[in-house]
Amino acid sequence: MPYQTINPFNNKLIKEYPTHNDKQVEEALTTAHALYKSDWAQGDIKQRVKVLHKLSELMASRVDELAEVVSVEMGKLIGQSRGEVQICADIAKFYAENAEEFLKPVPYKSDLGEAWVEHHPIGIILAVEPWNFPFYQLMRVLAPNLASGNSVLVKHASIVPHCAETFEKLVSEAGAPKGAYTNLFISQDQVASIIDDDRVQGVALTGSEKAGAIVAARAAGKLKKSTLELGGNDVFAVLDDADIDHAAKAGAQARVSNAGQVCTAAKRFIIHEKVADEFLKKFTEHFKALKIGDPLDISTTLGPLSSADAVKTLSKQVDDAVKHGAKLHFGGKKVTGNPGNFFEPTILTHITRDNPAYFEEFFGPVAQVYIVKNDEELVKLANDSHYGLGGSVFTTDLNRARKLASQIETGMVYVNSPTDTAAELPFGGVKRSGFGRELSDLGIKEFVNQKLVVLAAKS
Q1: In sequence order, which residues have a C-beta less than 8 Å from that of residue 136 and are 6 or more positions away?
Q2: DSSP 3-state assignment of 344?
């Protein structure tokens, strides 16, 4: 696919970007590898976290400017784009302040002698990243790897090239040397060649299940580590003792944030039968109140999908779900009368297990509502999924919440809150949602050599 910026609000082409040829890719690899071998990567961490401090300051000082870049290029509401820029600044600051502590030697008691584990960089990390959080996804990979001394090459999504270039310029402006972070506009074949290169020691991908399988297989074939953050079909469970007003409002926002284009968005709403009617009524009211429009208008509450293809895919999924017996409770169609990529907020009910929608991820403002009789049914339904990324449980009984959170098979569970993210908390999933963790102390240790050193005890 060509790298081009098309405003999803009006489908106008803004700019096309030239791709990098094989010679440019080789130059990037050579530069990145040379930097890994230098004192920049192998020496004092303080020189690297200084860059992260500066990067944090730069992004925090340009929130409005950078947010507009995101909203114009992929359609995110301007308020949400500002939030994305701010969390990027927070992540850079978090690793600037904590990386040295995370990477310090860890002593181990042993009869063999004095023992400790050191943390060293391993080389070049290739990141393949998606469009839905075009700065945040980059920062999740850059910050821990820059702190640890790894060089990062990035293949960003083809529909957000302006974000890709902008982020690379920010990293350079923050003082990172050439080779620390390199953006590449490349093809899938070039990605495969980079993975094969001996100088590349790890691959981080956030994206679709299909892309994850291809990249992970390629990396495994070369005995290289990968981390994957893939799709999600997150549950939003509402128990019979929940605050329904709060749950309905939070649920609606959790489903339509970023126009529903979030891996950890609430997608399967599992409601206790005693409160199902009340929840569905209030949930629907929130959907009806959404204002579709220009993502740069602060009063807009539902923006466009990222592309015309995204609308086609979502439309087909909804149509197929209805053909297989699902009931269309609300919405269900592409919004007509404007040139943008808008899809109505939609609620589907009566989805049975033989309906293809039961196992699919809907990447847009489409909610599935299920009704259960008790907590056992809730857990069974929640875990009957190919995915296991995040989830939410709404209840006033926190002991009950703790028990359910432990039983739900996901990488993350939030109680009385939609799934969220923070620099200090690990992010990732299980099953077909991928493996490995980003952010927190766990994220910085995914791509380091945890080297054991033992000073033998005297015999």
Answers
A1: 84, 87, 88, 91, 421
A2: coil
> CA–CA distance from 193 to each of 104, 179, 198 (Å)?
34, 18, 10
Q: Is 229 a catalytic residue?
A: yes
Q: What is the largest CA-CA distance in the chain?
A: 84
3-state SS, residue 49? helix
pTM: 0.97
- Write the CB contacts of 425 (distance below 8 Å, at least 6 apart in sequence): 439, 440
Per annotation, catalytic residue among 73, 229, 361, 446 = 229
The model's pLDDT over 277-308, given as tens digits with 9 standing for 90+, comes to 999 999 999 999 999 999 999 999 999 999 99
User: 249-263 b/e with 16+ CB inside 10 Å = b?
Assistant: ebbbebbbbbbbbbb
> In CATH terms, is domain 235-422 a member of 3.40.50.300?
no
Distances (CA, A) of 247 to 34, 259, 271, 389, 422: 53, 19, 10, 20, 21
Q: How many DSSP H helices and E strands does the chain contain? A: 15, 20
The CATH T-level fold of domain 3-230+432-456 is: Aldehyde Dehydrogenase; Chain A, domain 1 (3.40.605)
